[in-house]
Amino acid sequence: MPIYPSTVFITGANRGIGLEFVKQLLGSKNPPNKLIASCRKPAEAKELNELSSVNPAVHVLQFDVTDFDAIPKIVSDTERILDGVGLNLLINNAGIIHRSPLGGVTLDEMRTEADINCIAPVLIAQAFVPLLRKAAEASDVPNMSCDKAAIVNITSKVGSIADNRGGGRYAYRASKAGLNAITKSLSIDLAKENILAVVLHPGWVQTSMGGPDALIDTVTCVQGLLNVMATLDAQKSGTFWDYKGEQIPW
Ligand SMILES: NC(=O)c1ccc[n+]([C@@H]2O[C@H](COP(=O)([O-])OP(=O)(O)OC[C@H]3O[C@@H](n4cnc5c(N)ncnc54)[C@H](OP(=O)(O)O)[C@@H]3O)[C@@H](O)[C@H]2O)c1
């Protein structure tokens, strides 16, 4: 079951899961009219630039998500690109991981992961609310959906406290658990505006983060995530799913 958002903004779109989101959204039967693909270093984003050079829907914006002062400019650049319409879908995808064991955890990694995986998504989501609201108000679809107005935060099962049987990964678990908590609040605060908010776990994916031994490739991952996104509605806002459509406990 596909999703057909007209306008999309994504972070970390130059490689891995983010780049595959761009490819599959563009390859859909009804691709977005405007797909704003942000990344830290556009000059080095070869594949993304190639996609944008042959597809006028793709707009590449330079955005390091830890440059919090740049968020208002990112939103105003997006507003200019959207040219009067709202934003249907925000995907907070950019993320990093450290794997230091107990005894090696550093202040720097705790702070960096908090910044990228947890603090950036809430500041970005908050700044995009007016554009998401605009899309929700303009939509004639009655229920909440990823085609209408939605915030999809890419989390990890590793951020589930209930599922933690392996220990370790302090910075990553904390930052993703924080992202989960934030997403729940977004879903509650934005329900009255018909803006959906969820966290999705992409699986263990063969990317630079997941490594070559991971269980699935980015194609399978994003196909699964898009299928799950197509099932989301008001009842599912504020919940936590994996790419296969299985709900994950907090
Ligand atoms: N792969 C997995 O098995 C797995 C499992 C669970 C969850 N996830 C989550 O899935 C998401 C995508 O991960 P991935 O597997 O695609 O990882 P990846 O291949 O390592 O890609 C990470 C992406 O995040 C971007 N990024 C990192 N720091 C950034 C910053 N400060 N500002 C802007 N962009 C930044 C990277 O950009 P640069 O190229 O500039 O570094 C890159 O585009 C992450 O949120 C991750 O936590 C992945």
UniProtKB/TrEMBL annotation:
It holds the Pfam family adh_short. InterPro entries: Fungal_SecMetab_SDRs (IPR051468), NAD(P)-bd_dom_sf (IPR036291), SDR_fam (IPR002347). Keywords: NADP, Oxidoreductase. GO terms for cellular component: cytoplasm. One of its GO terms (molecular function) is oxidoreductase activity. Gene3D superfamilies: NAD(P)-binding Rossmann-like Domain (3.40.50.720). SUPFAM superfamilies: NAD(P)-binding Rossmann-fold domains (SSF51735). It comes from the Eukaryota. Belongs to the short-chain dehydrogenases/reductases (SDR) family. This is C-factor. It comes from Capitella teleta (Polychaete worm).
